[in-house]
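FORM 12-B: Structure-to-Sequence Request
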């Protein structure tokens, strides 16, 4: 008989599992964050060094990790599009709008294991030199926004967010932004327009690929 092998919701439905940070920590939460912060530059055969951030980006590329949207786009490939040479700030946005009818891929994570989402975002931000990130959540998800904001406060209290996370010297702010209930905000460029305070109207691609010309 086929069996379900859970990864993202591995613990979520276990008896007694709660969305608070203490429960998450008891299940090895934020251990991966501690692990990557402890990485050192890696010597390469050509005499150059690979930074800890480059090591994480390389690992994600090799893993074949893909997005959970309909396109299943390569996460590592998307990260490789980010402009790291212009000197402009890089932002990360989590698309939790989930406005498609009958779609429930985001809500269970937000409601049952919000710190897993937050830790994943912190890791992604650190690997891509991001200092400011947003979770754009559907306006109707009032309870989800409440759960996330409470989880973010818990993370700040434990120094997993804010100034010099875990005394690493790395700063990150992460905020929840509630949408206005427009279906089109589920499309990535429409979402960015909305987050900027404009009408949620999709941008023309190219040139407006979010990893190149985004927020």
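FORM 12-B RESPONSE
SEQUENCE OUT:
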């Amino acid at each position: 008989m086929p069996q379900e092998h859970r990864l993202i919701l591995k613990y979520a439905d276990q008896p007694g599992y709660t969305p608070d940070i203490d429960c998450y920590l008891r299940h090895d939460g934020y251990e991966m964050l501690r692990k990557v912060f402890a990485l050192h530059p890696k010597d390469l055969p050509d005499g150059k060094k690979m930074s800890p951030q480059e090591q994480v980006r390389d690992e994600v590329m090799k893993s074949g990790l893909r997005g959970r949207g309909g396109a299943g786009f390569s996460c590592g490939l998307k990260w490789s599009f980010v402009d790291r040479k212009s000197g402009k700030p890089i932002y990360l946005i989590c698309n939790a709008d989930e406005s498609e009818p009958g779609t429930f891929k985001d809500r269970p994570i937000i409601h049952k294991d919000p710190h897993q989402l937050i830790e994943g975002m912190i890791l992604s931000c650190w690997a891509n030199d991001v200092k400011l990130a947003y979770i754009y959540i559907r306006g109707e998800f009032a309870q989800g926004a409440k759960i996330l904001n409470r989880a973010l406060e818990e993370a700040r209290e434990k120094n997993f967010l804010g100034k010099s996370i875990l005394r690493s010297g790395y700063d990150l702010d992460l905020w929840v932004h509630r949408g206005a209930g427009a279906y089109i905000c589920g499309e990535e460029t429409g979402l960015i327009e909305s987050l900027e305070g404009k009408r949620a109207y999709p941008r023309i691609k190219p040139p407006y690929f979010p990893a190149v010309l985004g927020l």
